[in-house]
Amino acid sequence: MGRWKPDARGRLEQAALELYGERGFEQTTAKEIAERAGLTERTFFRHFADKREVLFPHANPLRESLVTALDSVPVTAAPIDVVAAALESACGLFAERRELARQRQAVIDANTELQERELIKLASLVSALAEALRRRGVADPAAILAAEVGVAAFKVAFGRWISQPDQHDLARLVRDTLEELRAVTAGK
Amino acid sequence: MGRWKPDARGRLEQAALELYGERGFEQTTAKEIAERAGLTERTFFRHFADKREVLFPHANPLRESLVTALDSVPVTAAPIDVVAAALESACGLFAERRELARQRQAVIDANTELQERELIKLASLVSALAEALRRRGVADPAAILAAEVGVAAFKVAFGRWISQPDQHDLARLVRDTLEELRAVTAGK
Fold this sequence. Notes:
Shape of chain A: elongated
CATH topology of the largest domain in chain A: Tetracycline Repressor, domain 2
Largest sheet of chain A: none
CATH class of the largest domain in chain A: Mainly Alpha
Oligomer: homodimer
Helix content of chain A: 55-70%
CATH architecture of the largest domain in chain A: Orthogonal Bundle
CATH superfamily of the largest domain in chain A: Tetracycline Repressor, domain 2
Number of helices of chain A: 9
């Protein structure tokens, strides 16, 4: 312990998800996470404010990536296509993280308080996307509806991606799910 | 105080919404609500477990009404049309309650904890609708997507209804918003 090894944050995250899965989120302490990762508790608190922040990082890379991607789509595209392009581009964030995402989801599904936190995170994605669309001149209700629909499709696609081992391509699942959503909404 | 008057629950609700709006939700006590309604604190607690339950009744009439309405739509209808019919039919619940709904929303918008509670309530509507669709033989992802889309449209329509004094017909706004959602999703 104490000696420097690369990627302390990544090791802490992995150790935390293992322990949350084995013992439950409530029953795991920061000290135990640090021990499992071969690091000190002090190092844990240099990277995370508390054990919940392992699951919900203060900086929200998904939200930032979505807004950045959205701002770079040509202004001529329809709002839903802008949202789709942003969502597909953000999928790169998860490329090497499917097992971590699966573990994280299992921890969240087992804890009501964490489920609430996840709902808040998703609602903040909807707000950020709608706001970015409005900045591009998309009026309401189109802006809020495109954002709601996009996040709903992403959520369903993400659930399929982590639960279906034969589905490797998250971006493709997002595209397919949006296509299904289109068909459902059209009444087909 | 103490003498029986009709509709204690309704008077308590009205008094609570007034006080939450005037002083803030956190700053209001059950005792003050009862006093404003001309009733005893004991009567308050016969109707509500706590002051939050005034905003989020334990029995969720909207969810129950949606599921009942959904179960009575012909099985031949497309999932989205089933959801639309259920949502429109549930609008009757709010017929005489626009001012109360407006006050309630203002209280919720001013308080993070209440916003979280509202997200949970909306998520439980999505689950209930999706589950009722599955019982009718609708497979996933169509069931969950139709439920997500329906609740998103309802949320937006409800926001318009309580903020736009010239819009009186919630069911019509739900229909219009679903139509706009259809156009947005189609990429128009």
